[in-house]
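Take a look at my tokenised protein here and describe the backbone shape.
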Amino acid sequence: MKKKTILVLLMISAIFLSGCWDMVEVNQRLFVSSIGIDLNKGNAKEKYIVTYVYPNINSIGKNASEKTKKFTVTTTSDAIFQAGSEFSTQVQFPFYYKHLKVLVIGEDLAKESKLVRQAIDGLNRDTKINSKVQILVAEGTAKDILESKPPQDQITDGTIYNILKNNKTASRFTPATLIEVIRDMDTAGVTIIPRIKLKGKDIKIFGGAIFKNYKLIGWIDEIENRALSLIKNETKAELIDAPYDDTTISYKITSSNSNKKVEVGEKIKVDLSLRTEGYLQEYILEENVTSYDDKVLKEMEKAVEKKLKKEIEDTINIAQHKYNADIIGIGEHLSKFEPKAWNNIKADWDQIFPQVEFNVKVDAKIRRTGLVR
């Protein structure tokens, strides 16, 4: 009797120890690394042009049997993941989204708030999608970006992801993940997504696309993005070229700190103060003039302060009067530190923000001047 009981238990155990019945081998999955979404103009039913990129696993490793690094497929669809299902008749294995790293939104689609919201919402709801997927907006079409062939035999989406992840300064552009875009839209209704463009065969990521209520309303360049990064304490290192006495000095920022003081009254007044420290990266002075002279050093600091102050004021002016988009983060600041006041004015913020008075102060310190006079 005992022997029969043991035999039955062993048989039952074998069932549970036999592995996953529905397991799919790695080489039987297509790991989507990037998705591009464009507007399918003039088609009310299939509104999206969806481009998928996935690596060719046969080209990976020492014993690679193929040279093609990636595969790119494109179709039209009414939804992103519906497009993936439609590809089941064209590709050998099912798509797998767990390793999705990059999402590129085409310029024309970005101007359609309803479609952008639908796409973002679909990605956010899918549990297989990493919420830290990097989002960019193409100047042109996402399809052209993902189908491009960068030099040195690199993979396009791998190049894009590496540029975003290796950006240590967060100045010339500011990386944006899926969850960050959704958070910004929920709290302020405004966000900035990195701008990507093809220049010949090269991919360039610079500046940003301003989104308001999930709609692209304009662009900012690298200098304006740098000003915003300084305001938001996102700059860790940056090089500033400032005019000084018929020459140019290069000031390397090594640390920066920005503070906002917001006063709510009949008019909202904002004091923005920025303090930076750094050193002179490069400069050429006239004979008998040296940066070791305290007077010259102070003049150089003033030149840097003037340059930074102008960049910040110009960026604020663009935000207030060109786009009426609070990319500065004043509404977010009020919601955190003055919630009562914010609740009273947030419904009218579009009318109030352009009237906000800003006072910008910059204090730049040069700590090292180099070895060459």
Summary: The chain is about 35% helix and 30% strand. The first strand starts at residue 30 and ends at 31. The domain at 224-373 is CATH 3.30.300.210 (GMP Synthetase; Chain A, domain 3).
